[in-house]
Amino acid sequence: MEIKDIKKLNMEELDKELYKFRKEFSQAKKEIRDGKEKDVRKGLRIKRIIARIHTVLNEKKRDKLKQKENGKEDK
Length: 75
Prior knowledge:
Number of helices: 3
Mean pLDDT: 92
Low-confidence stretches: none
Largest sheet: none
Order of helices and strands: HHH
Structural class: mainly alpha
Strand content: under 5%
């Protein structure tokens, strides 16, 4: 999942994607540990996607707080 695709999602969709990728990461770790998954870098790729989602979530939360602060100052 690319960063441009992640930025298009709203906060609820980001939470759902985060849950999905965390579950996928857990499954990938288990499969790698058990020897079922040959691609050991799969976990690293999933972790990077999770980090991207966290980054976008934090940016959106920060922007939302700034909008609230600016709205209160205007009144």
